[in-house]
Amino acid sequence: MKFSISIFRFCAAALLVVTLLFPRYTRPGTEATLAWDVSGYYLYLPATFIYHDLKRVAFLPEIIEKYQPSFSPDQAFPIENGNQVMKYSAGMAVLYLPFFAAGHCIAKLTDYPADGFSLPYQGAIHLGSVLAAIIGLWFLRKILLRYFPDRTVGWTLLLIALGTNFFNYATFDAANAHGWLFLLLALLTHLSIRYHELPTLRRAAGIGAVIGLAALVRPTEVLFAIVPLLWGVGSLAALRERLLFQKQLDARAAGGPCLGRHRQHPTGLLEVRQRPLVRVQLWRTRVQFPAPALLGRVF
Q1: Which residues pair with 86 in a beta bridge?
Q2: C-alpha–C-alpha distance, residues 25 and 35, integer Å
Q3: Which pLDDT tens digit goes with each residue over 197-221?
Q4: CA–CA separation, 52 and 287 (whole Å)
Q5: In degrees to the nearest 10, what's the CA dihedral of 137, 140, 142, 146?
Q6: Where are the domains of the chain?
């Protein structure tokens, strides 16, 4: 255990040192943290909490002119009624939220503009994203220690952290979705293992929340649900038994909520916990697409 924890600490320190030695969050224009795709992921936050303009995003041209996160305001697109449609889903904005709040407080307490794109916001989002990748590495260590010797786990962590593209997405490009999805997948795997060891309502809810967040970041990541559904399935018989959860779904529909079903199948609470996260995206869409006919064309 001591070897792998020492390697983890070394990797975490290395990632932080590299981030601080080559601080992307201090760079201008498209080299900044909040640039290109990241600026699109993030745009929900200043639009909602600073400018209170999620419909028309009228502040965006001024931000583009001042900070140049991209060559044109392509983070959102106009539609027929004059509103703007965000290019990306809202999942990354949900994950960025605590660090956006920290950056906003710092900007308010200092002389930096509280406009959502000044240095405090850039630094908070970037360093928060580095922290997320490091936490993901911690959960990976916990998972691997269940199956491999401590020294094997330590060397594996070192190779992944410093010898793969994880290094880039945990330092220079940390604010992209990759490091965050690494954290979510590691956390989901950890929760799935724990759930199958001892099923509880809390662990099932955690599984559903993680899958909901991942799908909100990238809709294709709804495939994360395969992890808890098939964890521990090593034969056709086990697969057949796992898939029988549909009968319990029918039993609940006929006789009311059934906690026993949740205790047998990790799918039990996925739909329950994902609903608030789905509502976040649907609420955002309804704000930008008020006409039902237009909603029908989009979906």
Answers
A1: 76
A2: 10
A3: 999 999 999 999 999 999 999 999 9
A4: 12
A5: -160
A6: 176-299
